[in-house]
Amino acid sequence: MHILILGSGGREHTFAHKIAKSNNCSKLFVAPGNAGTAAIATNYDLDPTDFKAVKKLVLAEQIEMLIVGPEVPLVQGIFNFFQDDKELQHVNVIGPSKRGALLEGSKERAKEFMGLYNIPTAAYNSFTAKSLDAGKQFLKTLKSPYVLKADGLAAGKGVVILKDLEEAKSELEQMLTHQKFGAASEKVVIEEFLDGIELSVFVLT
Fold first, then answer.
1. CB 124 within 8 A of CB 91
2. How many CA atoms lie within 13 A of 85 on its CB side?
3. Residue 188: which residues within 8 A CB-CB, separation 6 or more?
4. Which of 102, 125, 148 is the last residue before a domain boundary?
5. For 189, which DSSP code?
6. N or C terminus of the chain: which is more exposed, having fewer CB within 10 Å?
7. Nearest to 66, CA basis, from 118, 129, 1, 128
């Protein structure tokens, strides 16, 4: 099987490391990849969000399985792109649809989903620049420490935890009105702090 992994980080290197050992994998490609993946696969220098370039590579190398590492191409709908293209429909895409990827791409959407299906989660509220004052008032109703999360994707850097209320108010203003995390913080989710161990679970269906 010819397999293509999209991404350039440690996650994709780990995927490549394990998949390269499989007897089911005859050719392995990573785009764009990194120095680590170059030692065990063939790297292609392309942007994972350039779906037309990905398609060209998939057809040229007769790719049968596509594994999408980064969140951005998933949120932008690469799964749907493959499903809607007759030339690509035969490719097995490992990753959620654009709608499913919203659970990762929007903190607010994830919270709404958990509320809809009665999944326990921290109390929260969402705010934009227009509701900045309401956000500051909401912070007063919470106990320290205060958790502020940029709603969108921020490369793992969009979460701020502060102990001081005034610092939290200032940070909220920086995120909303000064776009500290760019478009990702056009909306900010404020939630109660939960102390414990964080566990990520990945499920393939």
1. no
2. 18
3. 126, 127, 128, 135, 148, 149, 150, 151, 172, 175, 176
4. 102
5. E
6. C
7. 1
User: Which of these three, 81, 102, 123, is where a domain ends?
Assistant: 102
DSSP helix/strand/coil, 138: helix
Residue 204 lies in a domain: no
| Rounded Cα–Cα distance for residues 194 and 11 (Å) | 26
pLDDT tens, N- to C-terminus, the chain (205 residues) = 999 999 999 999 999 999 999 999 999 999 999 999 999 999 999 999 999 999 999 999 999 999 999 999 999 999 999 999 999 999 999 999 999 999 989 999 999 999 999 999 999 999 999 999 999 999 999 999 999 999 998 877 889 999 999 999 999 999 999 888 888 899 999 999 999 998 888 777 7
SS3 202: coil
CATH number of the domain where residue 21 is located: 3.40.50.20
Residue 27 φ/ψ, nearest 5 degrees: -140, 135
